[in-house]
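Researcher: Here's a chain I'd like modeled. Treat it as a single chain, no partners, no ligands.
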Amino acid sequence: MSTEQLLFIPVILGTAREGRRSEHAARFVFEELKKREGIETELIDVREHRLPATDDTGETETARNILPTLERADGFIVVSPEYNHGYPGELKMFLDMSDGQYAKKPIAICGVSEGAVGGARMMEQLRNVILDLGATPILAAVYFATVEKLFNEEGEIQDDSYRDRVSKMFDSLLWYTKVLKAGRERESE
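Model: Modeled as a single isolated chain. Structure tokens:
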């Protein structure tokens, strides 16, 4: 497959907190996605693209540097922890600094939590934000529950069933990615 035909699907790590356990989940998803043929990916860490709390205009150097990457993407995977039944503020600011780069593109969500629900409440809220960005939140998702037990200290997953779970999510995301990319290309003709 030539480079022009590769689908570019970045993985967004949605928290900047120190000691974040969701980094293990994001790296796991990223490494599994890299194994897929026809996919180009990169791990985007919101920690590296923070905005001052009063400047969500996208006019900072940080925002200008990431916007071309977001524009080039064909779809996205967001890996985010659940904090107090919601998503992290850094993730919201990161998503808000865009200027249409998510429009008509699919987004898969992976939730991370210390509890048994794997970020389900955060996902419910984040889907609404994704819709407002003009993107398509796909239903296929992965819930990384009891994350402290799920990954060892080196970040290795302890439950191999998650390989199949993320693979099924990838299948769904790739279907949407191809369909929406074809639609965007037809519109631009």
